[in-house]
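Case study 2.
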Amino acid sequence: MALGAAGMMKRFGVLAAVVAACLAGRAAAQEGTGQPEFRLRSQEIQAVYPPEARASGVEGEAVVACQTYGAGFWSCGLISESPAGAGFGPAALALVKRYEVGGPKNPDANLVRSEPFRIQFQLPENNPIRAGGVEYRLPARVAAPSPDALYAAWPRAARFTGVEGWASLWCTVTVEGRTTACAVGQEGRVGLGFGEAALKLAPLYRFTPGRKAGAPAAMSIPIMVSFACDVRCRPFEGEGSTPGEWTAVPTPAQVQAAYPASAKAKGLAGFARLACAPTPAGVLRDCRVLAQAPADEGFGAAALALADRFKAEASPYPGRISFSVAFDQSLGVADRVWLTNPFPGRTPAAPLGRAGKAKAPPAPSTPPVAGRSRLRCQVAQGGELEACTVLENLPSDPEVERQVLENLKGIRTLTWTQEGHSTVGSTVELNVATGPYTPPWLVAAAPVPPVVAPGVIDYRPNTPLRTPNGEDMARYYPDRAQRMEVGGTARMSCAIGARGALESCQVLSESPPEYGFGDAALKVSRLFRYSPESIDGTTTGEPVVIPFSFAVPR
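Prediction:
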């Protein structure tokens, strides 16, 4: 169940939204292999927005049509643009042609068709807002890093395997429209370097200055920098599935021991992608190098030397798997947790015994106490959590801590990350509940508030403090839509109460209608908590608009 980017503000475009498109295309890539998905994002559209149209505040759209066959498309041409002559047609063609490839040699004429694509060009809203009886206008973005600049700044380990991410910055926009005094507020994927990459891009943004009572004024605002794969960065596909669980992986020390000596002496970081055939017992055989970067530095051979340190979860199903190995000084950060054994009580699925018969879950020795604990642990070699410190118990009851520590025995975490790092020895902070089965969840890093210089207006947007998870979305999924296996969307507007709860919520739209997605969104709204939009500590009273995306529970 996917929740749309809660609290996404169109206001001055600090959050990059994905623009819907539905065609997969082929194109040459510098990193990765496989089929890049054709999904134009707001940052791509903003990068080619016609300058004169932007300066005059004109919005528009263009329709282009391409010949398609299978996953490829070519021979794209402009069908229409509105308003005519504003430059939206050439801009749309420039976007689409980045994903265009030559037509297939022997296509089935019955399957070749012309596919139209509608691309909308919209400017971020910049309506005046009031706080303390004074009218303000937020800085409006007029220039942003190009896709080439985003690609160049992308953390190499993440880029190599197509790992996407984002970072939010707090920046002061001067009266000249330049960014200064930028700092990282939050990262979507901790430990991969997206925050540092975003800071490198901050000088490339330009804004109209903020205004207070009509006069230009320096203002501190958040800027969202999104690193999303385009035609040059895509995940590896077609050379085996992604491994499930590893039962053994190389330790960071073993990776460092295999590091090519000449590359290490030069201070070069490197990456390799392997494809292997695991035996039914999980031992890797017949490994080969799919890609390595940089080339001719020995990173492929070094990764092959580590292959016997990996052991996959035993599986009776044959097939190749592919994975990455990164050679640098980084330690992986786990981004998910799961269970190896069920908690006492209700379980999602009973485990199987040796004879294939379901074993009854053990009865709890003590009646469960409803609660949870926040813990900080280290990741052990098999993904088990050790050296744990209890940071908080809710409620503060010794029985809560005892039951949580009992449940902790059945929890493992990721030992090898998607971008190719071992997490063994890293620190992980997570919440674990008591009693019946409840999935543990990692504690998200708290956003860092800005440090605002004297004389600079301190703007804070509506910010989600607590959002529903996938289980919450599934619990309120409309019954009829679930029976019909129909997904949907909804969009609602709410006021933010004194304690951060949402109040007076109204459904703005829902699709498809008559399936109950609007009512479901209203029910889910009770689970949100927000800090309200404010200027220099005074709340604006502006509502928050939340988009939802409901996927059919499985």
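Residues 398-408 form the longest helix (11 residues).
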